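tool_call: predict_structure(chain=1)
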Amino acid sequence: MGGAARTYATDTHASIALSYILYADDHEDMRLMVRALLASAGHEVALVADGRAALDALQEREPDLLLLDVMMPRLSGLEACRAVKSNPFTARIPVLMLTAEGEIESKVEGFEAGADDYLAKPFDPRELRARVGSLLRLVRREADRNPTSGLPGGRAIEEEILRRIGRDDTFAVCYLDIDYFKPFADTFGFAAADAVIKDTATAIVDAVAAHGEPQDFVGHVGGDDFLIVTEDSRAEVVLRDSTRRFREVIERVVGYEALERGAFPGVDRDGTIKRFPIARMSAAVVTVRPDEWVSIGHLGALAADAKRRAKQQGAGTILVNAV
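tool_result:
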């Protein structure tokens, strides 16, 4: 799936791992310039002209880094970034947004779409190379285990699913997401949000241990998204116990009374005090059958769409056999 990294000595003090980079921009001159710049550092760079082509190319070969211009035809960089980050099997791919818009609003919009970094045009070529190198080092340093939850991440999740497909197993992929987590984190602070993510991971693992089997798998896609691979017949009971345990996690932070009221006071981005809904957990179950298997990317798209539909039905919804 991903591009194979190669290590070359660059001087007597350091070495860099060279990677496969996918770059989408509707301006040909910019595409060619960026490719030449990154190729001179030894990276392999593929070029496409818009966000839709980037998503298509990603299905063929997963890049180590995705560079996206913001304003493009057919599908903008922001839309493409959202699609990548909403798919549990591509969410781990780092995204660097490149745009001529330097205003703070544009940067905020890019980060809210899931971008990992942002660079405004025109940029110094040295800064682009530095940011690319920094993102790639960060991803490799973090490896494939989330530092907060301690759970395995994207590549391990993918390997687990492919292993089961290889055995011709039928199984369930459960995609869990915390609703209203951002206002919760903004109100209660980083430490509390970090503790909730860690305790949520423990709650899910405990629910799987209580109702699943030893071979069941729990992964952390990233942020407030988690994934369980289990038997189809056990999926719903595992999820219901996970959401019950998650409620206990939130109660420890907000208190029983706020939990019962279903809301807490907080401050929005404009500095206005308002009431926000208590964070809840939504989940969707997708049954995977070997005779219907297409690809990891296809399964990720199905899971992301199922989770979206679960959230549309209201916070805390569990949508079983969503496709």
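agent: The domain at 154-319 is CATH 3.30.70.270 (Alpha-Beta Plaits). Proceeding to next step.
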